[in-house]
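Memo to structure team: turn this sequence into structure tokens by end of day. - J.P.
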Amino acid sequence: MLTTEFYRAPADCGLVRSGADVPRTPMRALREDIHDILVSAPVAEARRTRDPRPIHRALGEQGLLAPQWPEEYGGRGISQVAAAVLVEELAMHDVPDLLHTLTVQIVGSTLLNVASPAMKARHLPGFAAGTAFGCVLFSEPQAGSDLNILSTRAVSDGKGGYKLYGTKVHSLFARLADYGLCLARGEDDAFSLFLVPLAQPGVTIRQIPGMGDDAFHEVTLDGVAVTAEDVVGETGQGWAIVVKTLAFERTGLDYYVKALRWYRAAVERLEVHTDRLEAGQHDQIGLAKLNARLLAAGTLVRRVLTRLDRGELNEDEAAAAKWYTTELAAEVAWWAAELDGDRSMTLDDPEVDGVAHPLDAALREAPGMRISGGTAEMMLETLARLRLDSGAEVRP
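Reply from structure team:
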């Protein structure tokens, strides 16, 4: 007799082994430390309010919010592969994860790689402690996927600083962020990257209506003052830095653990519908295929994170990981929605204590994952441009 256990995906994302039969290695200890904090954290409240900052502070106090960063900046100095345990545990406990992605994996990682020592010392410890947060200010009303045409301007104030003028859109968690990583065009038409303090005159943040759990925001910059110390990297080198920043975002890790969480949630639902599973009313082959694809995605993510640890991650590998994991996440979400035909299992128990079930959230979140951070079509175009057109060998 088939049971849902037959279809369970591995508990470790293919990244770090876990389970009762695994010795208590440093990596298993790391997982348990994170788990112990999350089980006692106010997760339900964070999901209701979409404000995970108290959870971030609890993790930050133990050096677990950015464990892959050096100890001098509040981390533990571990590898990207090992630090993936944190992202997995956040997803498995249904903690809103995008603020961590923005603050640590995108804004913080960008600073860690290209900022001056003074800027790192000024900002990274706060990010790692969960006492300061960041968001991304790249996209504009007329410049979404093609940032080359953005119009936000950085105008010299004649005193070594700049005034920023422009409107940014589709910024997640801007309402909670202390800083925005902003790409702007200089008077010489070259791009520069700024870390903009958002609590100052000239900054207006407006929520954009949407169907996702985490709202987008429009951020208007009207003469917002920044100093030379707020420039990330070198002036005029913003575009090259952003290309690297997008690679940090495109490891596939966040999308993969979402797919894994949604798959598990659907399999858990099947535990009360095993009669239909045994009767063949659910696509058993489909279940097995998704399980296999999750294993493959875990292997891909591990490879990408390993190359990131070595400083070898390139644009085409990041694009491949982003494309594969977002497509998989969307497939899992739709498969879960169709498990019970017209009466989807996501409707059996849509809310608990006012918090949406993970599968309900999946239906609303999955489509946007194929767009954010670079559309699926752009990822395929990148692969074609960098791999096929280069004459490089393409291996399965």
